[in-house]
Design a protein that fits this description.
Elements lengths: L17 H13 L12 H25 L8 H21 L4 H26 L4 H26 L16 H13 L6 H17 L5 H21 L7 H25 L2 H11 L11 H19 L3 H4 L14 H4 L5 H9 L8 H34 L13 H12 L9 H11 L1 H10 L15
Helix pairs in contact: 1-2, 1-4, 1-5, 2-4, 3-4, 3-15, 4-17, 4-18, 5-7, 6-7, 6-8, 6-16, 7-9, 8-16, 15-16, 15-18
């Protein structure tokens, strides 16, 4: 396996169906590996999307049939039960408020795929599949989609390296930032997967001139540092190993400089675009604010205006897939950037998942949805740290992956004010699967006392 570095001293028995579950989990994760967004999907694209969904639903159904007895295994079983109730509420809420079923299903699909990924990874973990084997299909899917989005954006979206923006951005980029942070500081061995993830992340960021990816990168660096200190207090890490851990960071820095320098030399105009985005995004326009920020402010203002019309809506929202708009008081400045007809068309009847997790959760499901999402992120971080603590006395080669759910959640949260990663199907799947990595840690820790061979200290890879 790609992330399987060394034998684990703690052997968790595998169920009779674990091999089939592992194969089906690969199929589930790869089902949307070539997913992409387009404003006007072709017939072939629509057929492909239905094929992706059929593969995801089919593999999930088979996994449930093979491992239904694991659904209530705690503590992950509690989250599956609560999140399942929440999604049922969201569907019923949208239906009762008259939201067209097609809209609610399309907008809510990333949430359901996230739940399916949680469920599938939970069953896989409880069937005895090793954590590294559970994480490998998630990593492979993320890398495939990052590369695919770049290829698709440059070849089929009508953009060039001089004009490209979000057309090449994959929802897996924030997850890759978490993976890189964990690989550098929480994994003792330098591994090629970290270099590959770093090349994909920095390459996509530099080409798209996207500032927002700086937030998950900073969040990953911050939280992995905190988690490393926590691991030191548990005795899972040794301070004498720190110089060896930092060597990948130095290598990654040189690799980043090489990638950035190569791109800027190949496309000199890109350096100017970055200078404008970072230091003077409105220098060529008579605007007081960044246009991207203005669109988000216009959206948030309109959402609160809609909810204010019926204050009870703050409790249960308007239903997932309901229409909202952009507040037209921001239009005079936005007309500088957008054509008036184009702006009014794109801002009058919006029903996608918005630009912020928090404003859209409040709009679609009210305070109930807001509490549910906050609880999900808190649970991801808490379960991750708890599972790492449970395995600290005998950490194995996959130990660093137990911190990944917390770091991934923190990276997504770093972008949540101005973007909504759950607008993407693949991000829902990747986050949901990563969430259940903690369950694999809890299963492994339950077998530590029964391990017959206990070395003084197992290497952490």
């Amino acid at each position: 396996m790609i992330l399987d570095d060394a034998p684990d001293p703690v052997r968790v028995p595998r169920s009779n169906h674990s091999l089939w579950i592992q194969i089906l989990f690969w199929l589930f994760m790869l089902s949307f590996a070539f997913d992409h967004k387009t404003t006007e999907p072709s017939t072939i694209s629509k057929i492909a999307q239905f094929g992706f969904l059929a593969l995801a639903v089919g593999s999930t159904t088979c996994i449930i049939l093979l491992g239904f007895q694991y659904l209530l295994v705690r503590p992950g079983g509690w989250i599956l039960f609560i999140w399942g109730l929440f999604l049922t509420y969201m569907v019923a809420n949208a239906f009762l408020q008259g939201v067209p079923p097609g809209r609610s299903l399309r907008t809510g699909l990333p949430f359901f795929l996230s739940f399916a990924a949680m469920l599938n990874a939970h069953i896989a973990a409880c069937s005895g599949i090793r954590l590294a084997h559970l994480a490998t299909p998630v990593f492979v899917t993320a890398i495939i989609n990052i590369i695919w989005r770049v290829i698709y954006g440059l070849l089929f979206s009508g953009v060039t390296l001089e004009t490209v923006r979000v057309e090449i951005l994959s929802p897996a980029l924030s997850w890759s930032a978490a993976f890189i942070g964990c690989s550098i500081l929480l994994r003792t061995k330098l591994h090629w997967t970290m270099l590959l993830a770093a090349a994909c992340l920095f390459g996509a960021m530099i080409m798209s001139v996207t500032r927002s990816l700086l937030f998950p990168m900073a969040a990953s660096a911050l939280l992995t540092s905190v988690l490393y200190l926590i691991g030191l207090s548990w005795g899972a890490f040794r301070i004498t190993e720190l110089p060896r851990k930092l060597s990948p960071l130095i290598l990654a820095a040189f690799a980043t400089i090489f990638v950035v320098a190569g791109l800027l030399l190949a496309v000199p105009h890109m350096a100017l675009r970055w200078q404008e985005r970072l230091f003077s995004p409105t220098s060529d326009r008579n605007m007081a604010s960044d246009p991207s920020l203005l669109t988000r402010q216009a959206e948030a203002t309109a959402i609160f205006d809609i909810l204010d019309e019926q204050p009870l809506s703050y409790l249960n929202g308007k239903g997932v897939g309901a229409s909202f708009y952009w507040d037209d008081s921001y239009f005079p400045e936005l007309y500088i950037v957008y054509d008036p007809e184009e702006l009014e068309e794109m801002s009058s009847d919006i029903w996608y998942a918005g630009h912020s997790i928090w404003t859209y959760s409040l709009f679609s499901g009210g305070l109930i949805a807001l509490v549910a999402f906050i609880g999900l992120f808190i649970a991801a971080i808490a379960y991750s740290i708890a599972s790492a603590a449970a395995n600290a006395r005998l950490p194995g080669p996959d130990y660093w992956l137990l911190f990944l759910p917390a770091v991934a959640a923190f990276c997504i949260l770093s972008e949540s004010a101005t973007s909504n990663p759950f607008d993407e199907r693949l991000l829902g799947m990747i986050f949901g699967a990563t969430f259940s990595f903690s369950q694999a840690g809890f299963i492994r820790s339950s077998w530590i006392p029964r391990t017959t061979h206990k070395p003084e200290r197992s290497p952490i890879a």
